[in-house]
Task: inverse folding
């Protein structure tokens, strides 16, 4: 009480008018210091029943702080195009989306690895994907690849584009239904920030890796080697093989008679690749 009496008459009024900047659904917003999460919800979206602060769902009221990123979500409500990115990436670590939404990632091969890498990156909010494959979806693909029975017979580029657009309709996809060779690597993947090698045959993998690293020095490439069978998932790792080249897998288990390709291990390796891409886009070593 003594301290309050010693304050200038307008001090408390000044304190109540202090402002801070937060982000609401990815947009900067100035609010009063001491604003609570529930007060913000009641002002901007009273029907919201999922409240996320800095990537984490909060169930109790909290006092917001400078720089907090708040997303208000109403379950079951279809977001507008303007809202979509904020809601898709609401659970991201703060600061991730601003970087990945400007990135372009190339993916060579859309089988078990490439299809799952593409979907993971689309869910992450990568702004643009360049997808290249010349094959069609066939029944044996469904044991490990991100396709559906009603897509059998479709070009993989077309089927995967269709699937990704159902997940992230605002992503930019450039799809090429063509076989990759030494002559078209530079044209197909010009402008990528990170390249993903997801081809099937060893000679194709070697050709793409050699050509890409030679044609695009300084652009990292994430490849895969060794993911067949049902060996322990923890054997699959990500290694820097040389400057600009990262390889995911166990480096041993190739597909052969009595050792096929199955969804669990292929998926582990694909997500190693996707996570390596994400870390590279964020300026981190995989």
Result:
């Amino acid at each position: 009480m003594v301290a309050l009496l010693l304050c200038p008459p307008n001090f408390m009024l000044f304190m109540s008018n202090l402002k801070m900047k937060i982000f609401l659904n990815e947009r900067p917003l100035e609010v009063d210091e001491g604003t609570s999460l529930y007060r913000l919800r009641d002002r901007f979206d009273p029907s919201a029943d999922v409240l996320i602060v800095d990537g984490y769902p909060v169930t109790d009221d909290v006092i917001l702080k400078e720089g907090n990123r708040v997303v208000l979500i109403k379950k079951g409500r279809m977001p507008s195009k303007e809202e979509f990115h904020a809601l898709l990436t609401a659970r991201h670590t703060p600061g991730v989306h601003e970087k990945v939404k400007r990135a372009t990632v190339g993916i060579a091969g859309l089988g078990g690895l490439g299809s799952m890498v593409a979907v993971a990156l689309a869910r992450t909010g990568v702004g643009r994907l360049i997808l290249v494959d010349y094959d069609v979806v066939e029944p044996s693909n469904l044991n490990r690849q991100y396709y559906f029975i009603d897509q059998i017979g479709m070009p993989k580029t077309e089927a995967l584009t269709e699937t990704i657009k159902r997940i992230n309709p605002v992503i930019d996809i450039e799809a090429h239904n063509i076989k990759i060779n030494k002559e078209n690597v530079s044209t197909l993947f010009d402008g990528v920030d990170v390249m993903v090698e997801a081809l099937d045959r060893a000679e194709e993998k070697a050709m793409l890796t050699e050509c890409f690293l030679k044609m695009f020095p300084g652009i990292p490439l994430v490849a895969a080697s060794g993911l067949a069978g049902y060996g322990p998932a923890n054997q699959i790792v990500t290694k820097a093989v040389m400057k600009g080249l990262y390889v995911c897998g166990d480096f041993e288990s190739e597909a052969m008679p009595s050792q096929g390709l199955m969804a669990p291990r292929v998926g582990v390796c694909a997500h190693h690749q996707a996570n390596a891409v994400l870390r590279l886009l964020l300026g981190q070593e995989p």
